[in-house]
Design a protein that fits this description.
The chain has a domain at about 570-650: Macroglobulin (MG2) domain (Immunoglobulin-like, Sandwich). About 5% of the residues lie in helices and about 40% in strands. The protein contains four helices and 40 strands.
Length: about 650
């Protein structure tokens, strides 16, 4: 209790330092008589008992990981700083090392990776994955990091810590167009670095979506032309790396040019034009690496409405990309947005999408989570008003499911109460806890998806997000079975103090099978928040957050959704994954013919098995039949009833 009272006192003191003359807020809610819409349906987390000695699955708590040399390690929420490798059951966190604390970093700019083999309870490291380039004034910025596990490896010490970073140039260098990768065995005895300079264009080279997909490392470059925040053109460039005997060969595809709307100043419109909404770019892949989606938030030249996802899909592992139509102006979409958005001049409800994240589910669809408000006007008819939003409008988090044809399904998740901090914040941490840190994740089996974000529970300081807590929501990938939004951190020791948060893109299941735990991290202590003034030179504390847990939902994946009404039962194939042959147990109350169809993620039939006639129970073997490594489905049909389950070929 004394610790909590002391924290409340400290927190009150530094908030007092922000005091300035306040104008009375006129925060207007949109209310329509025909809808029963509440501004927020957030619910409180259960009461937790603080247990500092063992936090796992018992409490939302912080576990010390290390010290980052600066806030540049965690500034952008699109960088993948925390990662979970399910094959090795290990969590990793990557950041710029504080040279005052780690002898491995004799000066600012060295990137290290820490890892946990007990699901966040203790941490080891750092493994140096990227040294500082030799040139004076050059540093690594905005790193991402993963643990890469070579095919067939089960020894953590033989896995590799891998990172990417943007290179901060010399004061005379302009622009930032260099890129660096680094790798090292977890044992620390196989360091390699890869520096790419003079990349052939005049712009800002930023990276997103860093991850291991199959046997490759993959990510995305945003390739711009022109000055920062005033780019004349933007392209998206997926990249990959093949692993060969301890080294990575980095391959960069031809950039995919974007047909973005050009404003009167000749600038391509994307969300990053506005300080505080920097990235708004991402890439996501299916487990087998065949299906992928990449997008940027901007205005397309054809539509000219307001910021929305400019989306591309591949079905051939990135060899070719096709643009996906994103149409929020169909009658169905407009009716969906009606309770949440304002109707603008032209009679349309125009979403202003300014934060997003997404994962690919087991069906190969993109589960995107986007934060949107009402745009003040459309770009074609009211170009002078583009970029403005209704600040008296609550923002909303939506779950939009996309396939290759466009919008497949839309769900409302929750409302938010705050905006990003303004341009004259109390200090640098208040301004650059940037955005609501929306993170999309999925379970290892890809059947359940999650979204987390930060938001203050009350309106303060001109509605700035200065007292952020962690919120979350989850659903089944196929059916609209979902949790309620929940505030994980209300009532805990560090409530209202979750700046610079990240979630891993994978959640692991508890031993009892009842919950998923999402690896989660946060940085900046109260002391650092109040005293730090240099975003590039003052250290920040990296902490792992325990207890971000979701219930395991009953997610049926049958053709008709629910299997309970079927006259037969089908087991999960065993073994799964498999490489040669796997077996399915079938139990039926009817006597009839049985067939099993094997199909891929895109729904294409591979082969069909005529299993004969069932009379009670039967076992059916499903051969790999030269199937490539990846995710497949087997559909068991008896009479006019069918059920589908997922299987994995390794």
């Amino acid at each position: 209790m004394k610790k909590k009272l002391l924290f409340i006192l400290v927190f009150s003191l530094f908030l007092g330092a922000f005091a300035q003359e306040k104008a009375e807020l006129n925060y207007v809610k949109k209310i329509q008589d025909s809808y029963d819409v509440t501004p927020s349906k957030k619910i409180n987390a259960p009461d937790f008992v603080l247990n500092q000695s063992k936090a796992i699955n018992e409490d939302v708590n912080r576990v010390y990981v290390g010290k980052a040399g600066s806030q540049r390690s965690v500034r952008r929420d699109e960088n993948h700083v925390i990662s979970y490798n399910s094959e090795l059951d290990v969590i990793s966190i990557t950041f710029i090392l504080d040279p005052e604390l780690y002898p491995q970093a004799d000066e600012m700019g060295v990137i290290g990776q820490f890892y946990s083999t007990d699901r966040g309870e203790t941490w080891q490291g750092p493994v140096v994955v990227r040294e500082k380039p030799e040139e004076d004034g050059v540093e690594n910025y905005y790193p991402s990091g993963i643990i890469y596990n070579p095919s067939g490896n089960s020894d953590l010490s033989s896995a590799y810590a891998v990172s990417q970073s943007t290179i901060l140039p010399n004061p005379s260098s302009d622009p930032w167009n260099s890129k660096a990768f680094g790798s090292n065995k977890i044992s620390g005895d196989d360091y390699n670095d890869y520096l790419f300079e003079e990349v052939g264009y005049d712009g800002y080279w930023n990276q997103f979506g860093f991850n291991q997909i199959g046997d490759e490392v993959r990510g995305l470059n945003m390739v711009p032309e022109g000055d920062w925040a005033a780019f004349t053109s933007i392209a998206l460039q997926p990249y990959s790396a093949d692993f060969d005997n301890g080294a990575f060969e980095w391959n960069f595809s031809t950039p995919e040019e974007l047909d973005l709307w050009i404003d009167g100043d000749g600038e391509a419109y994307w969300i990053g034009k506005w300080v505080g909404r920097d990235g708004a770019t991402e890439i996501a892949w299916s487990d087998d690496g065949q299906i992928g989606y990449m997008w940027i938030l901007g205005i397309t030249a054809e539509e000219g409405t307001c910021s929305q996802p400019v989306l591309f899909k591949t079905e051939d592992a990135g060899d070719s990309w096709d643009e996906v139509e994103v149409d929020f102006f169909t009658d169905e979409a407009q009716q969906f947005f009606d309770p949440y958005l304002f109707t603008i001049h032209t009679g349309m409800m125009i979403p202003y999408v300014y934060e997003s994240a997404g994962v690919v589910d087991f069906k190969g669809d993109l589960q995107m989570f986007m934060l949107a408000r009402s745009c003040s006007a459309d770009a074609i008819n009211y170009s002078d008003s583009v970029g403005f939003i209704y600040n008296n409008d609550y923002g909303h988090i939506f779950n939009i499911t996309f396939d290759g044809n466009g919008v497949k399904e839309m769900m409302w998740v929750d409302s938010i109460l705050t905006d990003n901090p303004g341009q004259d914040p109390p200090n640098y941490a208040g301004n650059t806890g940037w955005q609501h840190r929306i993170c999309a994740s999925k379970s290892v089996d890809e059947e359940q998806v999650f979204v987390t974000w930060i938001d203050s529970r009350e309106e303060i300081e001109e509605n700035w997000n200065l007292e952020p807590d962690v919120f979350g929501w989850s659903k089944c990938a196929l059916q609209n079975i979902h949790t309620d939004p929940i505030c994980f951190t209300e009532g805990t020791l560090y409530e209202k103090f979750y700046f610079f948060t990240y979630a891993a893109d994978r959640a692991f299941k508890s031993e009892d099978g009842l919950t998923y735990t999402l690896p989660y991290m946060q940085t900046v202590t109260p002391g650092e928040y109040t005293s730090n003034t240099n975003a590039s030179g003052d250290p920040v504390t990296i902490s792992y957050v325990t207890g971000i847990e979701f219930p395991v939902l009953d997610c049926p994946i049958g053709i008709n959704g629910i299997e309970a009404n079927l006259s037969f039962e089908v087991s999960q194939n065993n073994p799964n994954p498999f490489s040669t042959i796997t077996t399915v147990d079938i139990s039926s109350s009817r006597v009839d013919k049985v067939s099993i169809e094997v199909s891929n993620l895109m729904g294409q039939s591979i082969y069909t098995i005529d299993a004969g006639v069932i009379n009670g129970n039967m076992k059916v073997n499903i051969p790999a039949k030269d199937l490539k490594t990846g995710v497949y489905f087997y559909t068991v049909t008896i009479g006019n009833e069918s059920v589908t389950k997922k299987m994995i070929v390794e």
